Amino acid sequence: MSKDLPQPKQSDEVDLGQLFKLIGNAFERFFKFIGSILNSLFLAFVWIVFFLKKHFIKFVIAGIVGVALGILLEKTSEPIYKSYITVKQNYNTGENLYNAISYYNDLVEQHDISTLESVLGIKQEELSSIIDFEIESIISENQKIKEYDAYLKTLDSTVAATVDYESFLNNDKDYNHQYQQITIKAKERNSFSPVFNKIIENINSNPYFKREQDKDINELKAQALAINTSLIKSDTLLTVYQKAIIKAAENNNNSQARITIDNQDTGSSTKEFELYSKDLGLREKLVEIERQIADKQNIIEITSSKQDSGSIDNRKEILGQLVGLKTYYALILLIVTFLILISFDFIKFLGRYKDKI
């Protein structure tokens, strides 16, 4: 039996060797796979370079034709005028505001100007030239980061650890941001101030938001009244302290006179300073409340208004960017030319492949 004892060790060594061999083969196949991908990408890059070189003249002609077409359309097509305002939401009116703009757009697309007139209270002559309503949030990347940080502070630390910045942005709605930009596009240069004002007025007159506004203002006024009452009592108490200090000084001519209040001996200067500090804090709180009341006076308000009569804007959107007509049509013709030429090459490739079958 003693002669059979070393055999398990040999089996372990064989198994370990096979394991290392399997790991080595796996790494070899992995690096070959990465190499094949890089090789394919390099071949695709080389093919694109030679493809562009082969059809370079055609792309140049397409670009020139696109620029010429853009210039022609700029001179012959009707101009589009754009005007916009920036609004500040003091309440959560975003969803309501976005729905309203969407509704106005639907009426414009359906050429239902009479309904739009009744909704906005503006004459049809001033509305007939409108071709589009737009709204978008105004927020910078830094402001988004600040909002993300503020949101995390409202969560439990365990839950906050599971919320990353990307998931926060995916769940964030544009209409929740405080500042929004409303844009009107029209075929004629008109003064759009009445239209903008009516849009804001419709939100400000919403019964639900009016009730919320009344409750908030009444609550803030009650807080202000309570603080004012406290300040009056504080002033009275401060007067008592000052009289006590003067009387104590007259009685014993001691610069460090002390008075007894609530059966405790406390330095008068210390009590006076504490009272002054509390008084100052109350006054700062009162200023803050008055600012809040001023903000709550408008459910939504216009913060800036530019180009009320509209400015010419014939730009078009491509790949998420607004560009001029010349650039737009040049890019469109280049893309179309590229797709047509690559389709012809693909058809030729299929023809050669068919002959080999």
Automatic annotation (TrEMBL):
<feature type="transmembrane region" description="Helical">
    <location>
        <begin position="328"/>
        <end position="347"/>
    </location>
</feature>
<keyword id="KW-0472">Membrane</keyword>
<keyword id="KW-1133">Transmembrane helix</keyword>
<feature type="transmembrane region" description="Helical">
    <location>
        <begin position="56"/>
        <end position="73"/>
    </location>
</feature>
<protein>
    <recommendedName>
        <fullName>Polysaccharide chain length determinant N-terminal domain-containing protein</fullName>
    </recommendedName>
</protein>
<feature type="transmembrane region" description="Helical">
    <location>
        <begin position="30"/>
        <end position="50"/>
    </location>
</feature>
<keyword id="KW-0812">Transmembrane</keyword>
